[in-house]
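dude i think i finally got it to work??
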Amino acid sequence: MTRVTIRRKGGKIVGFEADSHAGYAPSGSDIVCSGISALVQSAVLGLEQVARVQPTYHIGGATVTCAVPDSLTAEARERADMILETMLLGLRAIAEQYAEYLDITQREV
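look at this
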């Protein structure tokens, strides 16, 4: 099961971690894992290239971690929010159909 933890501060997403393979199918043909991976990696790219925010992130093995800097302008924060909340919508859509393979938790930091 993939576990995604969304970290919020003041209601805003300030980071996330996606860990472990979904286990829906063997590695390399797991559509659930592929969907999750595409969403979280696209969020990192979107933060960098669309929102022009430089997150701290690590992508390796079956883990992706990402943290957004605290010192964003209001405009950059709004762009980052759109990207991160859209990622979460996509993850929730996957979790609705494949609940036994994806667990999403949110916590205030």
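The longest helix spans residues 74-97.
im so relieved honestly
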